[in-house]
Amino acid sequence: MILPIDPANKLSFKRFIKDGDLVIVYERHDTMKAVKVSEDGVLQNRFGAFKHSEWIGKPFGSKVLSNKGAFVYLLAPTPELWTLVLSHRTQILYIADISFVVMYLEIVPGCVVLESGTGSGSLTTSLARAVAPTGHVYTFDFHEQRAASAREDFEKTGLSSLVTVGVRDIQGEGFPDEFCGRADSVFLDLPQPWLVIPSAGKMLKPDGVLCSFSPCIEQVQRSCEALKSQFTDIRTFEVLLRTYEVRQKILESCPVNEGDSIERPPRKRRQGSAEGSNGTECSSSPAVVIRPSGEARGHTGYLTFARLKCFV
Amino acid sequence: MSIEEAVDEDSKQNHNSRLTYEGCNVLLDINDGDRLVFSRLTAASTLKIGNKKCSLQPLIGCPFGSLFQVEPGKEGTFLTRFVENAEGNGLEEKDVDGSKDNRALVDNNTAQSLTSEDIDEMRKQGAKGDEIVEALIANSATFEKKTLFSQDKYRVKKQKKYAPRVLLRRPFARSICEAYFKKHPEKIGFMRVDALSLLLSLGNVTANADVLVVDMLSGILTGAIAERLGGTGYVCNTYRGSSPYPVDITRMFNLSDEICKRIVHASLTDLNSFQTGASVSEGQEETLPVTHSGGLDEVSVPAEDGGMDVTPERVSSPIIKPVKSIKAGQKATLEAIKSWKENGFSSLIIAAPELDPWGIIKEVLPLLSFSAPFAVYHQYAQPLATCMHNLQIEKMAIGLQISEPWLREYQVLPSRTHPHMQMSAFGGYILSGTKISSSDSLTSSN
């Protein structure tokens, strides 16, 4: 299971794969898949067929072979890996936003967190990790089928005891009254969050934190207007992740031959092994170089945080 | 949907308490972030604002998030609860189309007719800060000509000077990291709060986890992890040499005894020697406190720039000191070390600006259980690149990635929304990955 909710079944143990486990099948950093292990199960992919029966008893993190001799790795699921493999029923939140939201909402074990909408449950999984083992996440989506799929996912990842999925139009009806004054934090990912802000204010404990995620600045503008009366410490952020490429390269340290050093056609990519040294004294040793990746996610959404004022 | 259990649990945990109590740690935000002070609330503790000392007694038992204003009184200045007008500052209702501008403003220092002698006289007569601010506004020849936004700015500036406000904050990883990043970034290795939050995610920190850390950032990482463990699992600080790295920032958090017990340390030698069956060095069962050079005041930094400091406020009464025993950071028990040897740590987080990442990770990675995630923070990219390259070559880990978080804050105002003019351009690099099993040596490739 994704979290060590039961202390007797901690994360840190020699983890051996058993029948019924959820594993993340890792081909490459951008090709992963969640698989439920079953004794007679077979995973088919472009590398061939992998029999689950051969996985059982191996430690997580092991390399396993297909009938064609190709390999994949079997990893233990974490909320981060789950975010990369879950089925997208909606646009989801990714790690940079997720981490920041959990930190800024000041979620610690034992907290009660309200979320709407549930969407694909990417953030919900991390919220559950943060409130465990004694807290709870109540997440709402107005889409009955989507809520049901999310519920199935939480069952699959073993989070059902920490997450309750409700079907409700939060934007239209607000949060249920039973949560009045009991929420430590509220997270909104809705098209018109400003409509829910009065309700969110009722749910939060004094000094509790609200976060609203909106892709468009106009939404942020209206939300901030709505926050002013009851909330304080209103702050809007954008958080992105820049990833880097690392490789080994040979960089020439001096001209190879007289005359041809300046005007040179672009050379073919050299591999780690150096070509002929052309008789010069210069040694060009391979160096590890790093640069930002050429493409990146440029925008996800704006995160607006606010604290419920204390009027007491 | 009953939430009874969760609520009951909550009330037991003073860590998540929403009210201050005698002896709790607080973060005092003075004048909207101009000054940040960590303090322990006792009847005897005081806070110096300007040249006046104020007792912190009135703050005990108040909800976190409440605001206080400094007021003059017969027995010196004191802090009194300030409740903001529920209507906000009223700016939004007024005309904000910008019909006024600065064409009539001349900067010749004659706009204010109230002299400092006048103000002193008002003070002597016991005028409140707000009254002085109002008098300054009434005597400003240019105030009415200013735009609404400038008027508000003027009011805030004067209020900060004559009626300083103190906001009572909970010392959480978020606020502590922000405070240090703002005032003493070098103490926390220039790690911005978004980088810290990524480390906690990538290190899969959750209840019941046994997290191995190398924290050379004064304990900010250790404290943040302990906060997320909530009194379960362990955060085990390992170190090279004979003494553990100091974790004094953990004392700024409001960690309960339960949580502090979960912060332990063990030397690399102990963790490794035990691995090879040798015995752990002396004092196994005995849990020893981290040897700090002194009491709470040891981390206190003189306010060199006029009070703009993260100042852990010194508790003036010596009687308080014994109560303030350091609970966090005891030596890991033999039993715990043995269990980690058998089972491995569930994850690893390294934040050691002084160490070569590859040098340390190759030593500690074998201590993790298979498929354990890890994250390494560094303020320089090159050592992480080398480390990542070596991990790939040695086939020790997969899913390797170096990333850098980027954080931009916005000013959101009607018709005046834009990113902040000043921003932090760098918050650190993170290398993350997952340890793979080396037990089976398969040689075939894709």
From TrEMBL, chain A:
GO cellular component terms listed in the entry, alphabetical order: nucleus; tRNA (m1A) methyltransferase complex
Domain tRNA (adenine(58)-N(1))-methyltransferase catalytic subunit TRM61 C-terminal: 71-307
Stretches with biased composition (Polar residues): 274-286
Keyword vocabulary terms for this entry: Methyltransferase, Nucleus, S-adenosyl-L-methionine, Transferase, tRNA processing
Subcellular compartments: Nucleus
Pfam name, any one: GCD14
Chain intervals for the UniProt region annotation (Disordered): 257-292
Enzyme Commission identifier(s): 2.1.1.220
InterPro entries per UniProt: SAM-dependent_MTases_sf, TRM61_C, tRNA_MeTrfase_Gcd14
Binding-site residues for S-adenosyl-L-methionine, renumbered to this chain: S120, G121, S122, L123, D141, D169, D189
Domain of life: Eukaryota
Reactions it catalyzes: adenosine(58) in tRNA + S-adenosyl-L-methionine = N(1)-methyladenosine(58) in tRNA + S-adenosyl-L-homocysteine + H(+)
Alphabetical list of Gene3D superfamilies matching this protein: 3.10.330.20, Vaccinia Virus protein VP39
Family designation: Belongs to the class I-like SAM-binding methyltransferase superfamily. TRM61 family.
The protein's name: tRNA (adenine(58)-N(1))-methyltransferase
Taxonomic source organism: Solanum lycopersicum (Tomato)
Organism classification: Eukaryota, Viridiplantae, Streptophyta, Embryophyta, Tracheophyta
UniProtKB/TrEMBL annotation, chain B:
Keyword flag Glycoprotein: no
Domain of life: Eukaryota
GO biological-process terms attached to the record: tRNA methylation
Keyword terms of this UniProt record: Nucleus, tRNA processing
InterPro entries hit by this protein: TRM6
Pfam families: Gcd10p
GO CC term, one of those recorded: nucleus
Chief location of this protein within or outside the cell: nucleus
Localization terms from the record: Nucleus
Function description: Substrate-binding subunit of tRNA (adenine-N1-)-methyltransferase, which catalyzes the formation of N1-methyladenine at position 58 (m1A58) in initiator methionyl-tRNA.
Subunit structure: Heterotetramer.
Protein family according to the UniProt entry: Belongs to the TRM6/GCD10 family.
The protein's name: tRNA (adenine(58)-N(1))-methyltransferase non-catalytic subunit TRM6
Source organism of the structure: Solanum lycopersicum
Taxonomic lineage from the root: Eukaryota, Viridiplantae, Streptophyta, Embryophyta, Tracheophyta
